[in-house]
Amino acid sequence: MSRVIIATGRLAENPYRIEKIERNIYSIEELCYSLVQSAQFLDKEIMDPALVTWIGTELGLEDLQKKLTPYLGKSRALSDFVSTILDYTGYISQDKQMRTRQIVASGQGMEPYERRMKHARYLEDNGRLYDAIEEYESLLADLPEPERELRSRIYTRMGLIYAGLFRFRLAADSFGKAYDLSGDNEIYLKYLAAIRFGLSDAEYVSFISEHPEAYNASMELEKRMKAAGAAFEKSEMELMIERLRRYKSAGQETNYEIALHQTIQKLKDDYRMSKTSSIQ
Question: 111-233 in CATH: which number?
Answer without folding.
Answer: 1.25.40.10
